[in-house]
Amino acid sequence: MELMTRLKQASVETTPVDIANNLETLQFDSALSAEEVQLLHLRNRTHAITVSSCAQATYFASVLHEARQLKKQLKSPQKRTAKILQDREPRDPLKVGIIGCGRLGSQLAHCLLTYGDMNPKDLKISTRRPETLEYLRNKGVDCTHDNIKLASTSHLIFLCVLPSHVQTVAEEISDHLPRASIVYSFVSTYTPKRLKQLLGTSNVIKPEYSWSEESERNSWNCNINVNSALEDPEIVEKTCPIGYKKSECFVMTQEKLAEIMIFAFINMATTLRVNKEDALSILHIVMFEDTPEDHLREEDFIRNSRDQTGMFPRFQLTQLTEVTTSVLKRISTCQPLRAAFLKKYLGLFDNYVQQKAYEMLNGNM
C-alpha cells in the first residue's frame, strides 16, 4: 500500500503544469468572435474523436499481438502469462502498417509504440513525405513511401489517408493484400461496404462515432495532447466502446466496434489454425481477463458448422456491420463481460502510467 501511494504521488508530482492555464487572455478562444465561439464544439469534437481513435486502435493492436504470443503457450495454460513475460522477443509479433502519417497517423504511431508496447521494427509507415518522420525513424520504425510493400507484409493496416486519396491507395494495394490482413479505416466518408469493393477484402473495421447537442454539453478538455488524455483513466473510460460513462461522453463510440473486434480476432485465430476451443480460451484471456463469471460460447458465433477442421469459419466483417449478432447481444447485456472488457481496456493504459511512475520514483531514489 505504501509503494502504491508513493507511485501515485510520483505520478502527480511529475505531471506538467500549464502556467498559462488560468490566464484568460492567453487562451485559445480569447480572440474569437461571438460567432466563432459558437463553433468551438467542433474543435472539442475533433479532439475527442482523435483521442478515441488512438485509444481504440492501440487497444486492438495490443490484443492481437498478445493473442499471437498466447498461441504458443496453448499446451501449458497455467504458465502462459509467466512465459510471455520471460520471452524478451515476441515469437510471432503482430506486424502493423500505417498508410498516411499526417496528424492522426503520427499520433497513432506514437501511441502504438508507447502504450501498445510495440517493437518499432514491427511497425511500418507509408507516407508521401517519409523524410519528415525522422523522430520515428530514429526509434527504428520503417518509414517509406511504398504502400504495396506495407500492405503485403502487415497483419493489421491502419488507413489514415484523406478521403480524396482512398481511391488511389486502394488501386495500389488491393492486389497485394493478404487474405488474412485486417484493414482498420479512419476515413469517415467511406463505409465498410464501399471499402470492401475498393480493396477486395471484407476484413475491414471502421469505428463509428456519434454525438448530439446534449453530449456536446459535456465537458471535454481539447487543450491537452493525446498522450496526456490517454494517461487519464476517466478520459480513457469514455473512449471504451463498452463503458459505463456513455452519458458523460462528448462523442460516443458504437458498441458495434467491440463486436467487430471480437470477430476480427476470431478470423485471425482461424488464419493461425487455432481450433474453436482454444480460440475462445485465448479470446477470454486477452479481451476479458479470463473472467470466470461468464464466457462467450461457440453457439454465440455459429449455430451449425460443417467445418471438419474444428476451427471457426472466416467471418465477413463488412456484413456483420449490418446485422445484430448474438455476440453483440451478449456483450451488451452481460455485466460480467462488460466489466471485464472495460478492465482490460483501461489496464493497457494504466499499466504504462504505473510503470512510468515507478521508473520516475526509482530515478529519484
Please name the fourth-level CATH homologous superfamily: NAD(P)-binding Rossmann-like Domain
Spatial strand sequence of the major β-sheet: 3-2-1-4-5-6
Provide the number of structural domains. 1
| Strand coverage percent | 5-15%
Shape: globular
**Rg (CA only):** 21 Å
At CATH level 3, the topology is Rossmann fold
Termini distance? 18 Å
Give the total of beta strands.
Answer: 8
**Mean pLDDT over the residues:** 86
Under CATH at level 1, the class stands as: Alpha Beta
Helix content: 40-55%
Label the CATH architecture: 3-Layer(aba) Sandwich
- Unreliable spans are 10-15, 79-87
Tally of alpha and pi helices: 17
Structure class:
alpha/beta
